[in-house]
Amino acid sequence: MWRGCSNNTVKTLRNEAVLFAALASLSAVSAQAESFTAGTVMQKMEERERYAFVAGVVEGLAFARYKADGDSPAGMSCIYTWFYHEDGAVETVYAAFRKFPDNTPAGVVSALIRRRCDG
């Protein structure tokens, strides 16, 4: 399943997945009485929590893309390059969250990824 990845990459991905799951469950508890939206992320999370949450969403979408592409890393690599290496990507996500506060965080990030990696 992790063909072509170094042991450090696999460990990092697993650690980030665990972090994402923990953050998602904590966030879900704090947002039980309201819809969990992009607006909620911007209004209720501190910067450090927000970045970790969004990075978890990106990791999940990147892995889903990898599997959807038949274990081809090209689409996943585009996602990683965009989010982790291109200047302004994180602020682009936050701006989109502010513009579409009623949408789900994953839906907003997915739309940005499609525009960047499928366009």
UniProtKB/TrEMBL annotation:
Residues 1-33 form the signal peptide. It comes from the Bacteria. Keywords: Signal. This is Rap1a immunity protein domain-containing protein. It comes from Albimonas pacifica. The lineage of its organism: Bacteria, Pseudomonadati, Pseudomonadota, Alphaproteobacteria, Rhodobacterales.
